[in-house]
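User: Fold this; tokens only.

Assistant: Input:
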Amino acid sequence: MKLDVESVSLSGMAVVVVEDDETLRILLVDILTEMGAACDGFSNSEDALISMMGSHDGCSLVVVDHGVPGSIKGMEFISMVHARWPGLPAILTSGHQLDASEVTPPVTFLFKPWSIEELAEAIGKALQSSTPFRASLNPSGHKPI
């Protein structure tokens, strides 16, 4: 697949995708890979969190569906990640409108269904809102874990 989203490059970045819909998870990973990122996709937050805690490669962005199965929902996962890696760029997705109080900064909300352009815009916004975090990344684009 060839995308026309040159406004956002994820070259050298590692992205974690948490999405229980397998088709959408594969699509997200493909899109983010086309944008230059190295991606890991997970069907639930627990597996993603375990992987992130055991990784030495770091993570530059998380894209998480709010309604994933398991005991850790999307926003709770992002809160747990931010407790360990403050300011990590995060995008929360959902097909349901969430109460604004459920989506706490610095999180970018992306309503489903989204277009590739809306995804690229959300990525740009998430990366821009986390400038202090990005400044702490090593030259490969990864923050040490």
